[in-house]
Each structure stands twice: as structure tokens, then as C-alpha cells.
Amino acid sequence: RLLTGKSFAHLEHQDLWRRVLSLLVARGPHATRIRKVAAHLDWEDVMWGRASREDMLTNIIEANYTFETSQ
Length: 71
Description:
The chain is mainly α. It has helices at about 15-25, 45, 55-65. It is elongated and about 40 Å long.
């Protein structure tokens, strides 16, 4: 949706969405895969099938990773 030029003004955290759009444009439309994953997942979520192990571990890694862009 971001790459189609449709407005994302209704979304919260506009500063983050602008950064995401900038990165998507720089990398090209087919270089990135995006999936919605619940935040704050834990082993119980994995155990009950509410999330995959990969989703939970990715959340942990990304929560501790800082995205830096050149401006």
C-alpha cells in the first residue's frame, strides 16, 4: 500500500512510516517481505499455536535492533 502512493496519513507513528517508505523505495518493491506479527510474543504463544517460534525470535531480535538511515 505504501508503494502505490495511497495515503497513510491515518496511521499512527508517521515518522516511522516515512522511514519505512524511504527504505522500501531505496530497496525496490520486490526486495522486502512484510508480515504483521503480534508484539510481545513469548513461549506460551508459541506453545498454544498463536505464533511461530520464528515470529517470536524475530520480535526479540528486532526489538533490540536500531534501524539507521542516512538522511
